[in-house]
Amino acid sequence: MARIELRELAHAYKPNPASPADYALRPMDMEWKDGGAYALLGPSGCGKTTLLNIISGLVKPSHGRVLFDGKDVTDLPPESRNIAQVFQFPVIYDTMTVFDNLAFPLRNRGWKGAEINKRVHQVAEMLELTPDLKHRASGLSADAKQKISLGRGLARPDVAAVLFDEPLTVIDPHLKWLLRRKLKEIHHELKLSLIYVTHDQVEALTFADQVVVMTQGEVVQAGSAQQLFEEPAHTFVGYFIGSPGMNLLPCRIDGAAADLGGVSLPLSPAAQAALAGARGDVKLGIRPEFVECGFVPQPGAVPAVVQSVRDLGTHTLAEFRLGGLSIAAKLRHLEASAGEQAWLTLPPERSLYYVDDKRVA
Ligand code: ADP
Ligand code: MG
Questions:
Q1: Which of 151, 155, 304, 348 has the fewest beta carbons under 10 Å from its own?
Q2: Whose CA is nearest to atom 16 of ligand 1?
Q3: Which residues contact residue 248 at a Cβ distance below 8 angstroms, ignoring those fewer than 6 apart?
Q4: Predicted confidence band at 173 (pLDDT cuts at 50, 70, 90)?
């Protein structure tokens, strides 16, 4: 296992890139700790596979260096990097048995009978493949085949890292849930460094200790589930994580207050200090979970009009009109109908401010 560093890494597939839009990956510096469980989360096309392939050596970066334990591997081919990679679709030998598929990476490394037997059984047991070990892979379901691919990725204990590229895409939803948890357990048991790529926030947040969020070729934040939820460093993280995402309300700063579509909200001293002299596009970000609603005027509350109320069983999702803006609140319970006057409290400690999409307070 290894610590993986990316130094001033960037990648353009086209020669002579000119504008930022020509880059699949914009310049980044990152470190992946030895033994960590990481998720790389972002929408389709943001550069996740490119980044993974640069780490494994399938793609050579147009700029910057890749280091494993301080050693520069940028110019090494994949086979010299000691990485296991699992792809979206099964990559297995159909004519071989499940056992031989799992044993393949070990035999390649010169492992012998008894050692192979022990490790294959350990991996098969974790993935619930033991009953299939003697069967030919060709006769198995798509789910089972992908489990074999996962097993092949996890078979070698001495790899620098195991890279998963949306490996649960072909798996049915129920099994997906089980496998996600399984992979987390396996990480604890086998102590491999894992990087797991996905566009699914639930998958990323349940699997990983550290989630790296990407958009348009850029890493916008790396953090725990709680950090991404409570302190998004970028409006994209606020919007992409959560269901629904963070309210991002354009505002104009006027000394000690923020003007939200015509409604004035007092700023905390900290927010005032952070926003003093801010130039650019300012937004107030607040998660729907933190918006409070009442029906009588309260000190510090702002007037809003109920737009819609949906009872979702475990909670109520309400939309309000606040000045010219729309704001969502996730409430335990709300008896109200559209058109009613309400008073919303946006707690200052839960109100984050963004200038040109980056958090300032
Ligand atoms: P993701 O895995 O997040 O969906 P990718 O890394 O596959 O994203 O793609 C990032 C960007 O690079 C996309 O705009 C994609 O079209 C482009 N891209 C990916 N692979 C190639 C390639 N081999 N040649 C040219 N452009 C590519
Ligand atoms: Mg991809």
A1: 348
A2: 45
A3: 235, 238, 239, 283, 284, 285, 354
A4: confident
Establish whether the linkage from the previous residue to 269 is cis, with ω within 30° of 0.
no
Asked if residue 213 has its Cβ within 6 Å of ligand 1, the reply is: no
Chain segment 278-306, per-residue pLDDT in tens: 888 999 999 999 999 999 998 889 999 99
Residues, the chain:
361
Instruction: Sort 314 into a burial class: Cβ within 10 Å, 0-12 / 13-18 / 19+.
Output: exposed
Q: Interhelix angle for 173-190 vs 142-155, to 10°? A: 10
Phi, psi (rounded to 5 degrees) for 148: -65, -45
Give yes or no for a contact between 46 and 215, defined as CB atoms under 8 angstroms apart: yes
**Strands 71-72, 352-355: parallel, antiparallel or unpaired by DSSP?**
unpaired
Angle between helices 98-108 and 113-126 (to 10 degrees): 130
Which residue has the CA at smallest separation from atom 24 of ligand 1?
Answer: 13
| Cα 7 to ligand 1 centroid, rounded to whole Å | 20
Q: Which two tokens stand for residue 36?
A: 């960590």
Pocket test for ligand 1, best of 9, 13, 19, 164 (most atoms within 8 A of CB): 13
Taking the C-alpha atoms of residue 285 and residue 247, their distance in angstroms, rounded to an integer, is: 5
Q: What is the pLDDT of residues 58-111, one digit of tens each?
A: 999 999 999 999 999 999 999 999 999 999 999 999 999 999 999 999 999 999
> What would the pLDDT profile of 225-259 be if each residue is shown by its tens digit?
999 999 999 999 999 999 999 999 999 998 899 99
Cα–Cα distance for residue pair 356/280, rounded to 1 Å:
6
Q: What's the CA-to-centroid distance between 214 and ligand 2, angstroms?
A: 12
